Amino acid sequence: MLIGIIVTGHGNFASGLASSIEVIAGKQDKFEAIDFPIGSTNTELAKQLQEAVDRLNCSDIIFCTDIAGGTPFNQSVILSTHLPNSKVISGTNVPVLLEALFSRANQTALSLSEILVDSHQSRIQVFQSRSQNKKNRGSVLND
């Protein structure tokens, strides 16, 4: 069975990422996006997250959030304390979600969360032209 993935974050973060994922990889099963727009309350978000968990109907779930310590992260953590096979990660972006979606078969929430952290913890890159790269050797994308 696939691990359920719930992406959540401030504003339209979640639906924006879900839209990008659909353009890149098509519609995904066992995948929910829960936004936290201006004016929403913690209680409303908690209810929407619980409803997403119920719709997924998965034994393992990963909550992919935007910012550690933010309301979507905190509400996901609170909910995860009642779900023994769940994990909450922060710093979610399109590459993280793609890897989660494509790597989740035959994984547990714990093993997949470890894969995501290990492979994406140092993935931020700076573009430099070849002439700049000769001066500054580092992790860069070259033209």
UniProtKB/TrEMBL annotation:
The lineage of its organism: Bacteria, Bacillati, Bacillota, Negativicutes, Selenomonadales. Residues 2-140 form the PTS EIIA type-4 domain. PANTHER family: PTS PERMEASE-RELATED-RELATED, PTS SYSTEM MANNOSE-SPECIFIC EIIAB COMPONENT-RELATED. It comes from the Bacteria. PROSITE patterns: PTS_EIIA_TYPE_4. Keywords: Cytoplasm, Kinase, Phosphotransferase system, Sugar transport, Transferase, Transport. This is PTS system, mannose/fructose/sorbose family, IIA component. Its main location: cytoplasm. It is found in: Cytoplasm.
